[in-house]
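pinging the channel bc i need a second pair of eyes. not urgent but kinda urgent?? the chain im working w is below, pasted from the shared doc
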Amino acid sequence: MITRTKLHSSFIQYGDTCILGSYAIVSNYYTRDPFLDFFKDFCKHFNIRTEENDFAKYFSRHFITQGLSQTQRLTRLLSLTELNKYEIAYDYFFHKEYKSRNISGLNLMKEIHDTSKQKSFESSRNSFSLSYIPDVRNDIANVNDCLDREESLLMVAFQGERGGRHISVVGYDSNGFYMIETRPNKINGAVGISSICSLPDFGDALLTIQVSHKQEKGS
């Protein structure tokens, strides 16, 4: 059980960055590593160029710039935070990577967690386990039990409002189930939900459980 107020729930995604954004929310709880570190380390893991002219290229091809005039694009580009720039770089590459390999985005996130030599992912690996669940419906009792009894969180995919899939962090505390809303133009932060089953067409997920270092050492 993890109390919702202990999560860094103010993150609002810039583009389709809900998977790594959700992972950062989860890992930040266990490690306290800054959100920016995860996006920077993702780019290092895949050797993605991150000079200013590279960010400009990613931004110019980014979906939110469609239909904007040259002046509007420039104004928006100049207003980006450092985190926004790395989110765009991530967004530009991440979806291409998992689609080209015919796996889910959560599958790819699990692979990065398990194999990356970048500092934030190594820190995450040492702090919590990450289990891939192909369909939460088939393991709902175990998931609910883990969220209740363990220091555990769930990153779950469900149907978004624009027709695509969305990923959110779901947890459980003394007030019941909650999800962390990261989409813009929403009531952001920790939002109460009746259950995981209340999420529309929910599917695969990643389940985290805090690593017990005492158990690892055999004591």
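so Residues 4-216 form one domain. and The chain is about 45% helix and 20% strand. — does that match what u expected or am i reading it wrong
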